Amino acid sequence: MRLEEQYIKPASQLMEDYINGKANILQYFSYGPSVENFSKRFEVLQQHKVDRAKVGSILRKFMEPNGISQKAEAHLADFENGAPVVITGQQAGLLTGPLYTVHKAISVIVLAKQASEQLATKVVPVFWIAGEDHDLAEISHLYRGVDGRLDKLNFPHVEYGKNSASTAKLNKAKVHSYLEEYFRSLPETEFSKEMHETAFAFLDGADSFTDFFAALLNYFFKEEGLLYIDAASPDLRKYEASYFIQMVEKSEEIAEAVIAAEQNLVEEGYPAVIEAEPQAANLFITVEGERILLQRDGEEFVGNEGAVSFTMDELLDIAENSPERLSNNVVTRPLMQELVFPVLAFVGGPGEIAYWAALKGVFKVMDMEMPVVMPRLGMTLVNRQVQSLLQKYQLTFSEVFNELKVVELRNALMESIREKEAEHLIEETQRQLEAKYEDIQKSFSAISGGLTPLVEKNLQFHLKQLQFLKNKLEDEVVLQNSTQFNHFGLIEMELRPDDNFQERVFSPFPYLNVYGLELVQDLLKLDFQYDKTHKIIYL
């Protein structure tokens, strides 16, 4: 396994400016994305009041069903004894969701170790599972490679309705069948059986999407002592009751702060990704199993276009006595993480950091400051087959990803193998046909204007047949050179699937299938520099 690190320009201007320390975006954060800011943030955290014993017991209770490793137990003790945390989070995707979920976990582990050394104190990595998320369509799919192309395999989730990832009870038979189909699309290797048995063992022991996700997260990172919690945990919700009360009481100020920040961001040339509304309450409530976004309407909080309604006092009563019914959105989730944990640094992806850019004023409303917001480590895994093809065609990762060199090679190959004489004959026939039909149309029009559409329809029929011949000619030429075209397709699908980062598309499991379940642990042994470079890992 070899590590190569190089800068890749982010897709968004906001992210590019943020990681490069541009002042016009840094003003929206309490700290820049640098480990040098940890010392100052650590000093601020000394005033951060957290019931560490209570939060520690909530973490322990949630993690116990999967088994708590010695390292995790040590981290729990460190937390209870005063350690700050480096935190990240993600939805409970099937088979961990895209690779970047694993990359986030690796990021907080690496960053917590680095912070611990820098501050000469214990720093603990934490993963916040967004189990309250009810967008099951977003988490219930997997991508696979089929004949050199990307295929999205959707899991049938309609039966779960508006339930969240933590409350939706898995239909084990359907999930089992779905994952069997997915695993069948992977090549048979010496690791396939173990991978298959491990995944299904965790599925059999899970009741919800979150249970399945947490079990896999624990399996991959227990030896690193990664702590994790479900945001929808009833015990955590109970602990958060007083915080929900504050968010309800200050909901109008929170909305105003987001709107003001987004207006300023737009003036600076950045997008308003939250698209905040003045009446937003930035909280969800669960009613008869459905998670409903609340809005303020005068003195009331309403949802589902007025189908549900609560007075301020009613909502405050729910926050105090039934907090498990409430949950956060993208605006209030960072606040809740900060209230529950002493957060030294939050690790997020480009989308999350774009949300955070609008939240500095929100933290101020709650008498807090933002933690250090660090971009997660971006990674691309290059398997041995792709390595061989890169060598064969004398390509580098940068040429494939940044310079689109494969597109140039494919176009050059196509140009070199075209049957130009045959193409010329078809094109000449097309021109002659169009000229003759022009004469026919004039003649027919002189007889009756009603015949003109018939002539045009007849012409299009013949032109379509000529195009069919041209396409078939091209298909045959490509087929005769299919090996090279397939090579180019494979390189692109692996390194730039659908013009995207690999980590945003594929699950870790195709790579575990080829390199074994220890792959994640092997990645953690690499000497990652926590900087703005992308990590290219040659397996």
Note the main attributes of this structure.
25 helices, alpha/beta, 5-stranded antiparallel beta sheet, EC 6.-.-.-, CC_BshC, 5-stranded parallel beta sheet, 52% helix, 539 residues
User: What's the Cα radius of gyration?
Assistant: 28 Å
Shape: globular
How would a crystallographer describe the biggest sheet? 5 strands, parallel
Give the overall pLDDT as a whole number.
Answer: 94
Number of helices: 25
Structural class call reads: alpha/beta
Low-confidence stretches: none
**How many β-strands, per DSSP?**
15
- Which strand order spans the largest sheet, edge to edge or round the barrel? 6-3-2-12-13
In whole angstroms, the N-to-C terminal distance is: 5 Å
Fraction of residues in H or I helices = 40-55%
Beta fraction:
5-15%
Domain Bacillithiol biosynthesis BshC C-terminal coiled-coil: 379-539
Organism: Planococcus liqunii
Function: Involved in bacillithiol (BSH) biosynthesis. May catalyze the last step of the pathway, the addition of cysteine to glucosamine malate (GlcN-Mal) to generate BSH.
Keywords: Ligase
